[in-house]
Amino acid sequence: MTATDETRSQVQIAAAAAQSVGAEDLVALDVSQQLPFVDAFLIVTGRSERNVGAVADAVEEKLGEAGTRVVRREGRAEGRWVLIDFGDIVVHVFHPEERDYYSLERLWRDCPVISLEEALAQ
Known about the structure:
The protein is an alpha+beta fold. The protein has helices at residues 5-20, 49-65, 96-102, 104-107, 117-120, and strands at 24-30, 40-45, 72-74, 81-85, 89-94, 113-114.
């Protein structure tokens, strides 16, 4: 099974929202084959703790406007790694140091990449 069209649409919305407030190094992965409870990860970097919070807020706002609700949120207070679980998509907003340390792309390197070309062209 691969990520659904709806999940891919949510990824595009989240990526565009993240980029609009300065997120960098956006990567989307289809993790549906490896995880039974989520279809996609969106991994982004905020330039500072404040920017990490702004990116997380923008993603929540835009996906909320599209009808996607937050299931769970972690790490907002620290501003170093905010995880936002929307059910089918999990958004990871990292401070640069934490992104390098945890290296989720390396851990999930066998997963197909979801193109963000559409979202990043906006």
